[in-house]
Write a structure and sequence with these properties.
heterodimer; A: 250 residues; Rossmann fold; 2 domains; three-stranded antiparallel β-sheet; 37% helix; 25% strand; B: 460 residues; mainly alpha; Glutaredoxin; 18 helices
């Protein structure tokens, strides 16, 4: 706890090239403290995992960062400046979990709408469709898609968006093992092409495979930040996996 | 300074947004259900109106006086469009709510507000889609107008357009209210309750409180139905137009304020108060704008052209003190036949109700009850008449002006017509519903997929 608090108090010290800084974000729902003084940095080109069990505040944090839920306090800095919540969408796109939007529309229409709204070329859209294997369902209604294809559609929409930072809530939910690995490859490919990703994940094995760094959350508080090596060092468990580290810190 | 990696929020193309909103509204069942219900509703109203108009016309065949009372606006158009009014009041809120409520329920709104469109743009696009839905809802009533013309019925373009415009304003007002209800509600069901509370509530206000004295009359004037009443009388009121447009814009602005889930409630409340204050100012200004155009062919809202010209030259203030209770039928007559017309014709008319707050029962015992006092340029006269034939000469005498001679050829001839509208029922009960079903099928068909979208394959 003391180690993570020290990191949280000076979130940028170790990362002078921070793309985004989350500083002291807090939120309450009535008497319940959903987020408590959350601070961390996101570096350009990395895949950062927000790790925590259900109810730990991952979704609330992502929504607060994206400006989709008002935070009680705290700041979000983008390259050192503090854009208003309404302007954060200029820099980041947040993909919520469990959406089945515009369920009576056809998949092709939804994809085309996103691409047209952002003025994205057809090649980008085709790339996203190809990467996520959406071609067989383009003439299906969104509401008629299986859970897996529904998730693929959402991911495709996120890939079509041009913002440099992608926030995704549980991007691997709804996929079997093989599909999860495919999607992980897509995610890594996106990061290698220069986009930065923040993924909220409750499956620690998935997170360990795909993320460069981790922010461990429990009960709305940051319990650890860093690479797996950093976290192992914090816990004094040099051979531990993310699961053991998480259990030790929380 | 804008960051080089920022995605600009302004300047995004509107066409895909509009297309998406239109697709959303036509993909819902609410619109098509409303259209299917409208067909028999409008058809039966139209048929019944033509039958009744025909019966009255048969009686007036040999009587020019009776014939002059036969106006297609009152006899056919208003009853036919009354069916549209009922549908817009009771069903259109469900159509309009869908444009936002479904997105809130499925979470799509959280994607939509991140797209490069500002909240007012999103709401404007939804209002455009709502307007599109209203245009579709107009089809049955518009087809009734075409059938009426085909049957040989008379149409006077200005008054018909005025009626249509009134229904458009009413439809957009109901749509804006429904959109606002959807923006403040988490579910479409709650939004529907709020929207219907507005529409049905104002309906109840209209028939329960209209004609009541004092504050109740003021409350009754808030009814949405009042929006239509003026247009149904062939009047085009600038003040009413401004007021309704302000109300539509106000509800749309409130929808934009409440749209974004990330805005703190306190900010939403403060912005809402600013919206309400701005609309209140415009409404206050609108009530002061008395200018209106009488577009009715029978000029029911005006005196004869000669009288209108003569009255317009009365530059001094004309004070009228009415000693009648507002619910007294004589006052209703006076208001319709004289006062409303004077308000439009005389530049400086002031009408004072000396019995405000009194009822007929409590006032009729007074000797002066029923008197109407006219004061102009220091001269005063009294009358108990509610007829312009007696009152106008009295006013000219007060103004020391000659009574203008009546103009020739100004009398409304009336347009009696006995027609058989039974074949039209086939259109409303079979042809049009079939077209609507075909429209539903066309709107729901799977789109072609552009080849360039699948050029990379896309294996699952």
């Amino acid at each position: 706890m003391t180690g993570s608090t020290a990191i949280a108090r000076n979130p940028t010290a170790a990362h002078p090239t921070a793309l985004m800084e989350v500083v002291g974000v807090a939120k309450r729902y009535g008497e319940q403290r959903a987020l408590v003084d959350i601070s961390f940095t996101v570096n350009a080109g990395e895949v950062l995992g927000l790790i925590g069990p259900n109810g730990s505040g991952k979704t609330t944090l992502l929504e607060a960062v994206a400006g989709l839920a008002p935070a009680d306090s705290g700041r979000i800095l983008w390259r050192g400046t503090s854009p208003a919540p309404s302007r954060r969408r200029e820099f980041m796109f947040y993909l919520p979990d469990g959406l089945r939007p515009w369920d009576e529309q056809y998949v092709a229409r939804v994809v085309e709408f996103f691409a047209a709204a952002y003025g994205r070329p057809a090649s980008i859209t085709a790339q996203a469709i190809g990467a996520l294997g959406l071609a067989p369902v383009l003439r299906k209604q969104v509401g008629a898609l299986s859970k897996g294809y529904g998730r693929r559609l959402m991911l495709a929409l996120a890939l079509i968006t041009p913002q440099p930072l992608l926030l995704m809530d549980e991007p691997f939910d709804g996929f079997d093992l093989r599909q999860t690995r495919e999607i992980m490859a897509v995610v890594r490919d996106v990061a290698s092409n220069g986009r930065t990703l923040v993924l909220a994940i409750h499956q620690l094995i998935d997170a360990e495979r795909v993320c460069d760094r981790f922010v461990l959350l429990a009960d709305g508080q940051v319990r650890g930040i860093g690479t797996l090596a950093d976290l192992r060092a914090q816990t004094g468990m040099p051979a531990a996996g993310l699961e053991d580290v998480f259990l030790a810190l929380t | 300074m804008r960051s080089p990696d920022a995605v600009p929020v302004r300047g995004a193309p509107l066409r895909p947004l509009l297309a998406k909103e239109l697709r959303e509204i036509v993909s819902g069942r609410a619109l098509w259900t409303m259209l299917l219900i409208l067909c028999p509703l409008v058809g039966y109203s139209f048929w019944q109106a033509v039958v009744l108009y025909g019966e009255a016309s048969a009686a007036a065949r040999d009587s020019p006086v009776l014939a002059s009372g036969l106006s297609p606006l009152d006899g056919v158009l208003v009853p036919t469009f009354g069916a549209l009014y009922v549908a817009v009041t009771l069903l259109f809120p469900f159509v309009a709510i869908r444009s936002l409520g479904r997105e809130k329920e499925t979470g799509a709104l959280r994607l939509l507000v991140q797209l490069p469109y500002r909240a007012p743009t999103l709401i404007a696009a939804k209002m455009t889609a709502i307007f599109g839905a209203w245009l579709l809802a107009l089809v049955p009533a518009a087809s009734a107008v075409v059938i009426w013309a085909a049957l040989g019925g008379h149409l006077y373009a200005p008054e018909t357009a005025d009626l249509l415009f009134g229904h458009l304003l009413y439809g957009l007002l109901v749509g804006a209210i429904a959109l606002f209800a959807a923006s403040i509600s988490e579910s479409s069901a709650t939004a529907a309750i709020i929207a219907l509370a507005f529409t049905i509530g104002s309906w109840v206000l209209d028939f329960a409180l209209a004609g009541q004295p004092g504050a109740l009359d003021w409350v009754a004037r808030l009814s949405l139905t009042q929006t239509l009443r003026t247009f149904e009388q062939g009047l085009f009121s600038i003040g009413l137009l401004l007021g309704v447009v302000a109300a539509i814009a106000g509800f749309a602005a409130l929808s934009a304020v409440w749209l974004h889930p990330g805005m703190p409630p306190r900010t939403k409340l403060l912005r809402s108060l600013a919206c309400v204050a701005a609309v209140a100012v415009v409404l206050a200004l609108a009530t002061r704008l008395g200018s209106s155009l009488d577009l009715a062919e029978d000029r029911r809202n005006s005196f004869s052209a000669a009288d209108q010209r003569a009255l317009a030259e009365l530059r001094a203030p004309l004070l009228i003190t009415v000693r009648l209770a507002p619910e007294d039928p004589r006052y209703v007559d006076l208001r319709r036949n004289v006062l409303a017309k004077l308000e439009r014709a005389v530049p400086g008319v002031v009408i004072r109700l000396a019995t405000t707050g009194q009822s007929v029962v409590g006032s009729t015992g007074e000797e002066a009850y029923g008197e109407i006092e006219y004061s102009y340029a220091g001269r005063t006269d009294k009358s108990r008449s509610t007829s312009p034939r007696e009152i106008l000469p009295l006013l000219y005498a007060l103004a020391e002006r000659p009574v203008p001679p009546p103009g020739a050829g100004e009398d409304y001839p009336g347009y009696p017509l006995v027609a058989d509208a039974r074949p039209a029922l086939l259109w409303f009960f079979a042809g049009l519903p079939l077209l609507i079903v075909l429209g539903w099928w066309w709107a729901h068909r799977a789109p072609p997929v552009p080849a360039q979208l699948v050029k990379d394959g896309g294996q699952s």
